[in-house]
């Protein structure tokens, strides 16, 4: 090759190398010595710190902002819904579930509900047959204790007027709240489950047909039938309870067009009448909020809607949550090694460490417990968006922001929007 063409070839190689895409902050770590030797308290000046602050009501939360991110699941901890159970009966014990047998069955039902919520079954029906991820639900029931005792909150009531439940028919009492008003316990902090059965004359009639399970959500409680009328394995009751809790957390029936989720295609809801050959993936629904013998799956949108309701500090549902976020878990810090953008509200219980090469953008309400702080390592970035509200929701303080400093003087980077809000920081 002549010197002329050799020079042109070398020039071409240099141009190609210059045009090659460079890694972004999230793809590569900054060069240099970024070993943290100390953390310094950092108090940004250009943010809001109102003394009297009203948390804004999120009119239309986006479900996608509240869907668990499997790459950063530590930033989406499991929620625990406080529940208690009431077993209704007659004064002469019409139904066999009483005493320890009744209590054990109630515990088994709650455990089966939790087992079901921990599973991630595939979603049978989706829009245009697209494959939807079966995300972790990050939700469990917490069976509370009776006040002042270590005994599970399972109550037995013997009342000849209020023991029965009829879901349909001339004497249906599904919408009656009298039993809740009479026997509800800790309605301001626990979701009450009422296990009920058919009235005596129906139950003892030879012509009475014992139907399947049914239930209804009524404000601070859920009434269910099918629990007491005959012996059923706990797994037959758990789909019903989880379905009604879905209603309590803002979910509608999935077969409807107006359920608020684009990933739940409308359908005729005829699973019970379909032959076996027409049931299964792509044919029938196994969604928890439909009616079928396979009520089990939840779409990403549905999971997001439930957690949006639980994260809303103005919502009825939030008062049922066991406030695990008030306890500081110093031994379980959250390490962020890749970029993360937080839009939906979060309640965390540990320190946050933004490691070198990672960016955390906070544009949501974020609770941290007393003692927990946000640490920004050299080479890491913290961005506070205009929707950022960092606070402690337990009438305490949180540890504030701390900037990591290396031996060479490199520091973590914090960029705050003037509209960001920081409340009750520790001094």
UniProtKB/TrEMBL annotation:
It comes from Neolewinella lacunae. Residues 266-291 are annotated as: Disordered. SUPFAM superfamilies: Metalloproteases ('zincins'), catalytic domain. This is Peptidase M43 pregnancy-associated plasma-A domain-containing protein. Residues 1-21 form the signal peptide. The keyword Signal applies. Keywords: Signal. GO terms for molecular function: metallopeptidase activity. InterPro entries: MetalloPept_cat_dom_sf (IPR024079).
